[in-house]
Amino acid sequence: MFSCQAPSEGVGMSTYRVVVTDQVFPTVDLERELLHEIDAELVVAHGDREKVLELARDADALLNTYLPVDAGFIAQLRSCKIIARYGIGVDNIDRDAARAAGIPVTNVPDYSVEEVAAHTLALLLMLLRRIPEGLETVRTGAWTIDHVRPLARLSELHVGLVGFGRIAQRLARSLEALDITCVVFDPYVSTEARACAPAHIRFVDELDALLESVDAMSLHCPLTPQTRGLIGADQLSKLPSHAVLVNTSRGPLVDTDALIGALLAGSLRGAALDVVDPEPPADPAGLAATPGLHVTPHTAFYSESALREAQRKATSQVIQGLTGQPLDYQVN
């Protein structure tokens, strides 16, 4: 079924019409309040792609979360002046098609940096300190350190960061406080930025160099055709068998079948995922039952403050796009 939130009185006289393609927030009161300042009507779509298109075709702007906005969808937009995504990644939007249609696409690259970095750190420490094994030891009625051996000091460890954007940089600051060395692979970091990096950060020019030298690896890449499947069986085989992997970035960066295979074979000690491919997984309980694999349901981004920030900043991009102001976060 299709429905939309009731428009405000006199909505037909609004200057602009903004459509939320997929509503995931508790309310859109904040968006409605902000858009009211430029005389913009806000309509929330529900239903499948065709139902959303019924509203989106003549919209002046789209606010988007997960709904795929591909070339075919974009070709049917008659009046759209901006597509603003609430989150960081924009892999669900065909940016090239939008650019060809003269429609800017924006994201909110900085709304949950603190949250994702903290969640990643928690998962890393959980694995490196073997917290799950300790909990399971007590749960089974035992009281021994035998099941968590061997443990290294954190200051003796090397954590690999694949990608070095805002989240990875914030995580690196936390790891520095624990005297953990960071090994970073990111071909887009400039020579100047490398030279200014803190002493606990070491850059490598090849992914293999990182894989072979770390005790843990954390992924911080956008999902692109080049990074899809970045970590597969070949890459996992190059990690030390005591190593662990954390992914709070994008599920398709990792070949899930290859990861499960490495865990079952004992060639990788553990992994923690906040994102998987696909989402939601067909069998979440079965996935989490894999020995050594720990899964959270895509919650790394979440705090109430982060949600409000995403709503406010995405809506601000719409307002700026509709009123001819420069955009802060254009990605195409």
Question: In summary, what is this structure?
Answer:
Residues 30-332 form the D-isomer specific 2-hydroxyacid dehydrogenase catalytic domain. The protein is α/β, with parallel strands linked by helices.
Calculate Rg over CA atoms.
Answer: 22 Å
Number of helices: 13
Q: What is the ordering of alpha helices and beta strands?
A: EHEHEHEHEHHEHEHEHEHEHEHEH
Question: Please, how many domains?
Answer: 2
* Main CATH class of the largest domain: Alpha Beta
Residues in helix, %: 25-40%
Instruction: Classify the secondary structure makeup into a structural class.
Output: alpha/beta
**How is the CATH topology of the largest domain named?**
Rossmann fold
Number of strands: 12
Largest sheet: 7 strands, parallel
What is the fold's blueprint, element by element?
Blueprint: E1 16-20, H1 29-36, E2 40-44, H2 49-56, E3 61-64, H3 71-75, E4 83-85, H4 95-100, E5 105-106, H5 113-128, H6 131-139, E6 158-162, H7 166-177, E7 181-185, H8 191-195, E8 201-204, H9 207-211, E9 216-219, H10 233-238, E10 244-247, H11 256-265, E11 270-273, H12 284-288, E12 293-295, H13 304-322
Parallel strand pairs: 1-2, 1-3, 3-4, 4-5, 6-7, 6-9, 7-8, 9-10, 10-11, 11-12
